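Supplementary Methods. Inverse-folding protocol.

Structures were first reduced to a discrete structure-token string of length 307. This string, shown here, constituted the complete conditioning input.
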């Protein structure tokens, strides 16, 4: 098989990992009944935090930790506003996204021309030498493989553990969970912060590994696609993973087509990921009963413990 197809598969896994990490974080939020539209802003702030940290320390691990901390911190602010002060979840999320875009652009002005240290080449010994499959599957950053493991662990957590059952019950009927003595607000805040941390990790991955540089607005709508993916996957972690790779493949397809000389305007090719998002959501919305069956019953609804 042509080596270009192996490179396309490798690029698809790389691009899909960004969407998968962010989408799984947003899925945790929504399983607890909270909708956070601020993923784009959190990812942008995490991207500049991670990039700046790697430039200063030379450590990818420190960069990822900085991105996680930035995402969790912004999510904590969002959580306090919507869970304790009962602000509108959708308006607050949009405000967070706009704030993140503006703040990251301001904070990143001095880092536009900065370069990170030489990047290590990741590969799995012996497996990387397999024709076609080696370059396609076994030369990825470790986080690509950890994301797949995490998606499987999340399935086990949601459907095989008591903690996962409690989290889902908070998203289905917070009043019932509160009546049983569970701290609904704190559980929701924990879910929101974990989701924010994962969005932060996705943002840091973009600036450290995916495109090792900083450019204003470099997340380029991936936060919104990740948000759409949770609905596309009907709130199932395994489907989120598959959907992320599907959208990652669509994103990389534009470069592949340009590389093999297909005469299509670049503007049209750049539209492909967003066009695919609209088409998929339009197809899903044709069956609202299917969405209602799968989505958490209390998603987006405020909870008042005293009522």
């Amino acid at each position: 098989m042509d080596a270009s197809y192996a490179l396309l598969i490798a690029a698809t896994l790389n691009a899909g990992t960004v969407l998968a990490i962010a989408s799984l974080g947003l899925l945790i939020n929504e399983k607890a009944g909270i909708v956070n539209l601020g993923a784009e802003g959190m990812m942008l702030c995490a991207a500049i935090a991670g990039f700046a940290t790697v430039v200063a320390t030379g450590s990818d691990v420190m960069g990822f930790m900085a991105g996680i901390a930035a995402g969790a911190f912004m999510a904590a602010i969002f959580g306090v506003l919507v869970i304790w002060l009962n602000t509108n979840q959708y308006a607050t999320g949009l405000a967070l996204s706009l704030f993140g875009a503006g703040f990251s652009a301001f904070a990143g002005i001095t880092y536009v021309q900065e370069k990170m240290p030489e990047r290590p080449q990741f590969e799995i010994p012996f497996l990387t030498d397999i024709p076609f499959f080696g370059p396609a599957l076994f030369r990825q950053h470790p986080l690509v493989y950890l994301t797949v493991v995490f998606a499987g662990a999340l399935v086990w957590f949601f459907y095989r553990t008591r903690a996962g059952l409690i989290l889902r019950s908070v998203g289905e009927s917070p009043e019932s969970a509160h009546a049983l003595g569970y701290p609904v607000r704190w559980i929701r805040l924990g879910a929101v912060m974990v989701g924010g941390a994962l969005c932060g990790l996705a943002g840091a991955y973009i600036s450290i590994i995916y495109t090792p540089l900083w450019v204003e607005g470099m997340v380029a709508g991936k936060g919104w696609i990740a948000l759409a993916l949770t609905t596309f996957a009907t709130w199932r972690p395994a489907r989120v993973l598959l959907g992320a790779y599907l959208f990652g493949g669509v994103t990389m397809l534009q470069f592949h087509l340009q590389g093999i000389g297909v005469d299509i305007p670049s503007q049209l090719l750049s539209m492909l990921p967003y066009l695919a998002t609209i088409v998929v959501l339009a197809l899903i919305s044709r069956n609202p009963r299917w969405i209602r069956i799968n989505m958490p019953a209390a998603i987006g609804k405020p909870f008042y413990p005293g009522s």
